[in-house]
Amino acid sequence: MPALYALYVINKSGGLIYYKEFVPIASLNLNDTLRLASIWHSLHAIAAQLSPAQGCTGIDLLLTETFDLHCFQTLTGTKFLLVVEPRTPDVAELLRTTIYELYTDYVLKNPHDESQHHGLREEQGPRAEGKDKGKTIVPRSALPPGLQLTNYLSVQWTQKPRGRSNCSPTSTGNDGCDVPKYATLLMAAQQHDTVRNFKGANDPGPAEKSM
Amino acid sequence: MVCYNFYIFNRQGTCLCYHEWQRPKSVKQGAGTPSDDQKMMFGLFFSLKTFAAAMDPRTENKAQLGGPLRIGGACTFHSYATNNYKLHFLESPSGIKIILNTSPEIGDLRDHLSTIYGSIYVEYVLKNPVYMPGKPFRCQYFIGALTKYLQDCRLT
User: Fold this and answer.
1) pTM for the whole thing?
2) pLDDT recorded at residue A32
3) Are B87 and B80 spatial neighbours (Cβ–Cβ below 8 Å)?
4) Residues 6+ apart with CB under 8 A from A171
5) Measured between CB atoms, which of B31, B75, B108 is closest to A64?
6) Which of A146-155, A176-185, B62-71, B145-154 has the lowest mean pLDDT?
7) Angstrom distance (rounded) from CA B11 to CA A154
8) What is the predicted ipTM?
9) How far is B49 from chain A (nearest CA, A)?
10) What CATH class does B3-152 carry?
């Protein structure tokens, strides 16, 4: 009986940056894992907000009938999720020490790593200039490659995905294009304080400017 | 070993009962108003149920993300723990959801929640002839029996 089912690593804006399943789970495709990661990011923040006691930092452990989900949040906002068999011992320890150490050693200390790409931009806040003035630019690390969120209402492909000639950003068809659903989740996640503070609190979105 | 607060919701999302024993962080700092707090709580566990059903590692007949969930059919979560509170959840076959927030060191309360549903909620509320199902209720006997039951359990 396997004890570990899957590992997810989520960056501080809610986007999935790494996913590994140790046991094949046939009905979860990549789009679903991306959505699940964003959903978890939002639920983690909402649970902290709804806490009846002060100083809550979010969900650490989710217990269900068929699996346990352990979450470790680093001081920088990166979350490590481990889906395990129920009642597996010492998982929090494993996350905090082994997995986090391997991540820092092999990923963060790698000079070619792009998961924390816009470091300087994050400190200054996203700047909108020229034709993009008035639009909120989302850091590239929050979106899947090839996608750019130009404003709250539409998403624009910067590179067309191969093999899908019918795919347009505004299509609501079923699995041809997952862009509107992903953008909706991302917008929902952006409303939370954790993400809003990260983006640059002084930068109004186009919805607020028009009001 | 502390109980913070307690919610009962029905299938439509109406909060039928809310009771708090202690709440160090007030509602204003959290959701803003009590009704926002209740709506947010409903949304939270509704999404957690969907999330748990989609993450389920069993592969037969899994509910698709975004699809409707049958009560009792899909895998559902029964509690989650944070660094300073633990939330316990029970959904009855009729869609009545019971939520209890306690301090984090408390163990598995699934049996206790079943007893709360079966011996306290059903007895004091559902069997009350003037109770309109689906409407929020306030019942002193129910809160009293619930508090007494939790106090008896905390000693064990």
Assistant:
1) 0.70
2) 86
3) yes
4) A177, A180
5) B75
6) A146-155
7) 34
8) 0.89
9) 9
10) alpha beta
**Pick among A51, A68, A71 to test the B interface (most B CBs inside 10 A):** A51
- Chain A environment of B44 (Cβ under 8 Å): 43, 46-47, 50
In total, the C-beta contacts within 8 angstroms joining chain A to chain B are: 115
Which tokens sit at B133? 């199902």
Is the CB of A67 less than 8 angstroms away from the CB of B57? Answer: yes
What is the CA A11 to chain-centroid distance, rounded?
6
Question: How does strand B86-91 pair with strand B3-9?
Answer: unpaired
Q: What number is the average pLDDT over the span B9-36?
A: 90
B98 to chain A, minimum CA–CA distance in Å?
16
Please report, for chain B, the start and end positions of each structural domain, with discontinuous segments joined by +. Answer: 3-152
Name the 3-class secondary structure at A43: helix
Nearest CA in chain A to B34: A50
Q: How far is CA B155 from CA A92, B56, B119, B149, in A?
A: 29, 35, 19, 10
Residue in A3, A31, A67 with CA at minimum distance from that of residue B58: A67
User: The dihedral of CA A141, A143, A144, A145: what is its sign?
Assistant: negative
Q: Mind giving me the DSSP string for B93-155?
A: TTS-EEEEEE-TT----HHHHHHIIIIIIIIIIIT-TT--TTS----HHHHHHHHHHHHHHHT
